[in-house]
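Predict structure. Input: rRNA (Cytosine-C(5))-methyltransferase NOP2C isoform X3, 605 residues.
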Amino acid sequence: MKKARDFFFLATILRSSSFLTLLRPTPQMEDISERYCFKPILRWNPQVEDYFVRAYGPDHFSRISQALTRPSCYSCVRVNTLKSTPDAVIEKLLAILKEKGDVNSTNNVNLSKTDANCNSQSLHNCGKAASEQDGVTNTFKESFHSSSISKCQFPGLDYVLFVRGSGPHKIDYGYADGIPPKEVIVSRKCAEAVLRGAQVFVPGVMACSAHVEKGDVVAVSVAVEQPSADGGWGIGITRGTVMQGLQTDPYYFQRSGLYIGQGKAMMSRSGIFRITQGVAVDICSRVYQLPSFHDVLEGEIFLQNLPSIVTAHALDPQKGERILDMCAAPGGKTTAIAILMKDEGEIVAVDRSHNKVLDIQKLAVEMGLSCITTYKLDALKAVRRRNECDAASNLSCCDDINGMQSSNPVMLQVQKTALEGLTADEALNGSGRKNIRRMRNGPGRNQSIGGRVENSKGFSPNSFDRVLLDAPCSALGLRPRLFAGEETIESLRNHGKYQRRMFDQAVQLVRPGGVIVYSTCTINPGENEALVRYALDTYKFLSLAPQHPRIGGPGLVGHFEFPDGYIEEWLQPGEEELVQRFDPSSSLDTIGFFIAKFIVGSKDP
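Output follows.
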C-alpha cells in the first residue's frame, strides 16, 4: 500500500508543470526578449554582397539591407480622379478604418521607443526633401498630427494619399514559467505578406506546435532559407512538422528574432494541414501595423508605391497620344497613365501571360477606363517583322469586306466605315475583322469584358508616341524582404542582358521626337545605370531628359570591374541628376526603384 502511495506521489510530481519546467532548458530573461522579437538580418550571396558594398559603400549598403527587411511606415493610395476626389476618398477611408478599428490602433502592443517617431518623422522628411528640390511648402508633419491620412505634398501629386502605419511594435508572446507559447511557423513569402498587412493563409503554414486548437493564441514566426549542403539555399522543414518548443525543433535557433506577430488560430492543427485554403491565423498583434485595403473602394482607389506613380508622371502622357506599356501587368502604371490622359487617346498594354492580361482588363473596367487596349505579347517580340509589316500595309478594305461575303449594302457601308482609319497594326492584329463580326453577329459569349485575350504579332516601328518599359528585374528593391540569397552575380548580369534586349525593341517602336521611360524596382546598378549607359552609347539619337516631379535621388557614377575582367559602366558625371534613384534607406521610406527618361531624336543616319 505504501509503495502504491509513493508511486502515485512520484507520478504526480512528474506530471506537474513545475517539474516539467525544471526538465526544459530555460533561456535567460534577456535571451527571451532577444528571441521573441523581430530583428531580421538580410542574407545575400557573398559575391553579390561584395558587389553592392563596393557600389554603395559598406555603411550605406548596411542601411539599405536593414531598410529592405521592414515595410514602409505608410501606405500610398492613388485616387482615381475620373471617379472621385481626394477629399471624398479621405472621408470614406477614415470611416472604413474607424469601423475596422484600424485608425491609430496598436492592437494591445507597445511601440518600440527607438522607432516611436518612425511614421511622422519619415513622412516629415519626405515632405522636406520635396521642399528642398521643388520649393514645396512643407506641411507633412502638421497634417499627420491631425489625421492618419493626408494628401501628398509633392507638386502635381495631390491626388495621392499617404495612410500612416506604425511600428515596430513589441509584442508579449506569453512566455511564462519556462513554457513557450504555442507557435505557427510560416514560409518566408507568407511572412513578407503578413508584414504588409495580410493574414496567415493555410498554404503559407509550414509547421506548428502540437495540440493547437481553434481559438488558441499562437505566436507566428518565419522559416527563412538557409545554406544547404549542395551550396544553394533551402528550408529544411517538412510541411506539417510538429514543434515541441524545444531546442531540438527544426530551425529553433534560426527563428530567433524572426517573430512577426501574434494571432488566433482559425482552425485546429489537423485542419491547417488537411485543407488547402482559408485563413489559418487571424493576426491580432502585428510587428508593423498597416491598414488593409483589400476590396476597399474598388475602382476609386489603387494601392501603389510612390515611385511607380512618379514613373507615370515622368512619361508625361498627353491626350490623344498612342502609348505602349511593354510589360504592363498588373496594370497599375497603365491605369495611372490613362487617368493622366483623362482617358483620351490609346494605351496599348501588353504582357506575355494570358492571366495577367486578364488582370489588366479587369482593373481597367473596374476603374472605368476605355482607352486601354490589351494584348498577349512577349515584349522581346514587340516589333513586327518586316514581311508582316508589308503584308499589313497592303491590306485593303475591299479584301476585308469581300472576305466577309456580306450581301447587305447597308452592312457593307458599315463594314467599310469600321475599317477606315484603322492602323496597319490594328488590321493585322485582327481588331478590324473582329469588330465587323461583332457588328454583324452581335457579341459572343466570350466577348464579355475581362473574358478574352487578344494575341498580337507585334507592332510597326515608329508607331508610338511614348513607350514605358517597366522591365522585369531582380526586384531587389521590393520590401519587406527577408531573404536575398537567391541572386548571384551571374543571374544579375543575365537580368541586364534581358533588359537590354527589351530596350532594343522599345527604341524601334517609338517615333522620332517621342519618349521612352525605363524603370525597375531593384537596387542593382547593373540593371539601372548600366542600362542607361548601354542606351546612350548604342543609340546616339537618345538623350536623357529631366523628369517632373523629381523626388528621387541621383544615380551612381562610375563603373565596376568583375573578377572575370568584365567592366560594367554606369553613369558619367553630369548624368546622375537626370535619373531618379529611390533609396529604401532614405527619409522617403519607399521601395528601391529607378527611373530614366529618354528623348528620341532623329533616327536618320
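The chain has 20 helices and 25 strands.
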